[in-house]
Amino acid sequence: MRYVYEMEMQVRDYECDLQGIVNNANYQHYIEHTRHQFLRHEGISFADLHARGIDAVVARLNMAFKTPLRSGDSFVSRLAVRKEGIKYVFTQDLFRLPDGKPVIRSTVDTVCLVNGRLDHCEELDRAFAKYFEP
Questions:
Q1: Please, are residues 121 and 46 in contact by the beta-carbon 8 Å criterion?
Q2: Which among 118, 63, 48 has a CA at the least distance from the CA of 88?
Q3: Is 99 a catalytic residue?
Q4: Using CA atoms, how far apart are residues 26 and 12, in angstroms rounded to an integer?
Q5: Catalytic entry in 17, 48, 119, 125
Q6: 112/124 Cα distance (integer angstroms)
């Protein structure tokens, strides 16, 4: 996998369930936060896109859980992106630190609504072009 962005995070106590492991819904928060930080890293503001009538939305999400995280665990969130037709497909994987054990493997398909209609987003195409395979 050719990851193009990564960030480290730490599990907070309130993200865990009675079993002492991260509640499954929180993994979606982790990968969403990573995508938003990736956009900021690329100089793209989600709020600015929305103000101009461009909304990038999740069309499909698939997560495979490998190893649970527990309170206080540190982990790294890694992201790769590719274009498939009108979709941007993000591969997002989490790895526990310091041992690098896989936590989740996920794919997130996103599409853009431009003025309420499904369409290509030239701004994202330009920003991500350097990551797309020729």
A1: no
A2: 118
A3: no
A4: 10
A5: 17
A6: 9
pLDDT digits 0-9 by tens, 52-61: 999 999 999 9
Q: Which two tokens stand for residue 92?
A: 């997002």
Mode of pairing for the β-strands spanning 74-84 and 117-119: unpaired
**Contact indicator for 56, 46 with CB cutoff of 8 Å:** yes
Give the CATH number of the domain where residue 79 resides.
3.10.129.10
Q: Each residue of 2-52: pLDDT tens digit?
A: 999 999 999 999 999 999 999 999 999 999 999 999 999 999 998 999 999
> What does residue 19 show for φ and ψ, rounded to 5 degrees?
-80, -5
Is the pTM of the predicted complex or chain greater than 0.90? yes
Find the domain containing 39 and state its range.
Answer: 5-131
Minimal CA–CA distance to 86: which of 33, 122, 50, 47? 122
- Residue 86 · residue 50 · CB < 8 Å: no
